[in-house]
Amino acid sequence: MTVVIAAINGKGGAGKTTALMNIAGEYALRGGHVAMIDMDARNNLMKWWSDCQEKDAQPEGIEVYSHKTARGLERWMEESSGVFDYVLIDTPGEDTSIVDPVIASANLVISPIQPSKREVLGAIDSFENVLRVNDVLGRNCRHGVLRTRITVTVRHAELYRKIRPIIEDKVGTYLFRTEVFERNIYKDIHNGIGTLQMQEVTEAIAKARRETQALVGEVDEMLTTEVAAGRAA
């Protein structure tokens, strides 16, 4: 069965593309066949892919496609998704008509946030959209909030300390225990050097790899729960 993971937050710059790159690299390293769909007008994934081609650094097991419309995504899913073990969808950093069709095809929606009110509200909106689409279509798509670009300074911010009670207690969605820290390697990857998993292992790379492995471990747990809920229904 093809697993579909989408990164959605109506506010731009939240770290969606980086999170998907790292997740895709981990699944590809395991031997999975991964498709990444760029639906963002900024074309971050396609630019990365083009740069990887120019530098002869294309990761094995990953293919990248560009579809900017809901209909384009729908046609691609009908024709090609079954070829892949995982399909990862990068969405625009704004509210568009694309969101509902993406959720309708997804098993898991991840809403990356930095500790800012704007992005927290964007993640809450994404969760509410998932609930609405699930209710209309009778689906069991899961949703989780991922804290990104974390620094030591950020961890002392008031809003950072409020994220867990807001997301888990008040809103009622899942908050990933794994946090994505601000790391130079994540910026470097966008310049077309392949995936995190392709880099020579240094102490800094090892930390980033452990972070990504922990994140994917949580993703796998959520997907297992989604499948179980679907069977029960």
Automatic annotation (TrEMBL):
Record Pfam families: VirC1 (PF07015)
Highest taxon, organism lineage: Bacteria
Gene3D superfamilies named among the record's database cross-references: P-loop containing nucleotide triphosphate hydrolases (3.40.50.300)
The protein, known as: ParA family protein
Native organism: Aminobacter carboxidus
Upper classification of the organism: Bacteria, Pseudomonadati, Pseudomonadota, Alphaproteobacteria, Hyphomicrobiales
